[in-house]
Task: structure prediction
Amino acid sequence: MFGRLTHYAFDAVLISAFLAGVKRSTGLTPSFQSDKISESRELKQWVDKYLGMGEWVMDQSVAILGSTSYFERKR
Result:
């Protein structure tokens, strides 16, 4: 039970980080139109926090990978 919950949580973080990467590289973001999903303010706040978590994971990953000698920045 705990293993499955951990697996789902990790998958959710990976999806959120993937969406953050897409946003940064292309400028595309998920379209959450209020009339199509829900009028719930709590749900909108949860989605914002979820996507914000992906941004944080992306920031931390870039910082950690950028500080190692295994990766180099090419522009």
